[in-house]
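Quick board copy: two proteins, each given as sequence then tokens.
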Amino acid sequence: MTSIHIWHTFVASLTAFLLAGCGVMTPTTTPTPDWQPMPTYIYYVPQSDVSEYTHYTPSESFNFHLEFDYPSYWWLQEHSDEVAILSVFLGDPRFLTLPTPTPPDFHPTPSDFGSVDIWIMPSKPGQTPDTELESHKQGYSEISWMTVLGDYKTTIDGRDASVLEYQTNDPESSPSLMFNRRVYFMVNGQVYEIIFTVAEKERGGEFEKGYEYFFNSLKILP
């Protein structure tokens, strides 16, 4: 197997782990633990030791309308799956230390490393940030290992956004109780969801401070 194939396998497995195990599910559905994305396009931005923060703008042909700054020690990937759902993943570099899962299992080693996922998809008639939030809120309230904490409003570069916060407590995917914040907003006919995940024991720590810097730097592109 080539290094590219190994890397693609790792990304697919890691994404499936984040989707199924840490409360980071596909944006339009309630949790589906067996769902696994099949990557067709991946663009990786390497870590930097030159500056404290890295400025991100979308790569060419990636239909993404956000730019932002993030801690340079994080690693970032642009990803497009087989049904053309776009996403950007930002993660703690410790993810790279995990062993690559092998088929047919594809169940990564449990971890409680912090992550930020940004999901983008075309909006449907009548779909709003509030309808997305209520859909997930209802679904999560019916899952034993998830606890809905609350919801509220915020803005991103002057654009209205809705926020849902919840906890996940699933030992099969994480050894720790995890905190999750999911932000919903609309840009150019697309639904955007930002999912921040961190262990409750690390709340207020380095990774969350990095997230706050990232979030406050978000700018919407034309």
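And the next:
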Amino acid sequence: MQTFSNMQRNLTYQNFISYILWTLFFTGYICLSSIYTLLPPMVGVLLVLFDKALKKNNSLLLFFIVISIIILETQKGFLAFSLLVFFLLAHKYIIPKINQDINAHKVRNFLYVFIAYIGYIAFTNLISQIFILENLHINILYITFYIIVEYFIVSIFL
């Protein structure tokens, strides 16, 4: 009987398929959240996943998160690549400060989600002022609801 010593199951392929499925699910969810405004756009969840992918040097996960960010930006009408640039700036300057000062995991999760929304709104308004563009029109009740819902999602699943 012949043995195949070099034939093994590769976990990378399984991860690739699961990342594709999650990206397709996220795309459908973002389309639904454009119709139903009570569904949060998952900006905070994407920031947490983006930070984890960069910390673990998981380039495959990072690739699919960037695709999800681009899909979110196009579906919601955000400035092109503004969410991605904000996530990179937050990962470089804001998140290390939070990790250094706060040890409680649940508080860090809340601050990640809070910074994802409030920081992105401030960042977009700054970019709008610099390039003389129209500011975002936001409803603070929706943003508060999104922060609370996404905090529970991040706390439970991530």
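Board note added afterward: The chain has six helices and no strands.
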